[in-house]
Amino acid sequence: xxxxxxxxxxxxxxxxxxAVELYSRLPVRDEPDIVTAAVPAGAHILELGxxxxxxxxxxxxRGFTVTAVDESAEMLDRVRGARTVCGPIEDLELDETxxxxxxxxxxxxxxxxxxRRGMLRTCVRHVAEDGxxxxxxxxxxxxTDLPRERVDPSGFTTRILSAEPVGxxxxxxxxxxxxxxxxxxxxxxxxxxxTEQFEQALAEAGxxxxxxxxxxxxxxxxxxx
Length: 225
Known about the structure:
Blueprint: E1 6-8, H1 20-25, H2 31-38, E2 44-48, H3 56-61, E3 65-70, H4 73-76, E4 83-86, E5 98-103, H5 113-126, E6 127-136, E7 148-151, E8 157-167, E9 170-179, E10 182-190, H6 195-205, E11 207-212, E12 219-224
Parallel strand pairs: 2-3, 2-5, 3-4, 5-6
Antiparallel strand pairs: 1-10, 6-12, 7-8, 8-9, 9-10, 11-12
């Protein structure tokens, strides 16, 4: 396990506390539509942190080519129809570039700044000169409007229970997922970033914001500076 990360519940748990079986159950929402509207049709996408393919599979159905990366072999075993690469995002070196690089799942908020910098370097290293990088950010109240819960129409409940400071601007976030037949928990470290801090982190890596893709600013398209 990565330091500060933990997960409980049935099945395999990944190094960052994610439960493979849980992520296989989570529904797809509007993320694939956001991506589709922001990138060229038929683009080759490098998806960093693909998990079980929750976004991979809808993107493939929309005609994109996807190279899916995750550090969990158990997650990648659930991915179908895409080239897969197993390993930490921050260490990835494929010696090729892509039309689109995607870093979703709030990974840009990694608690360890060196890990975040490594992930951003990976994005820059793999995006084509005229390509783009898509980021998914946390919402403004992600760490403060707590505890909170959302009941999904399919019948399970997601709870963000707490976000406790652990030093250096990092919070330990605890989440719970309650299904009729199982309960999973995940504890992970997250660094809140203001818009200014987020844009500064991109600038340090050689990227700039092209545009915010959603009204709440949680999805962002960036390009090379």
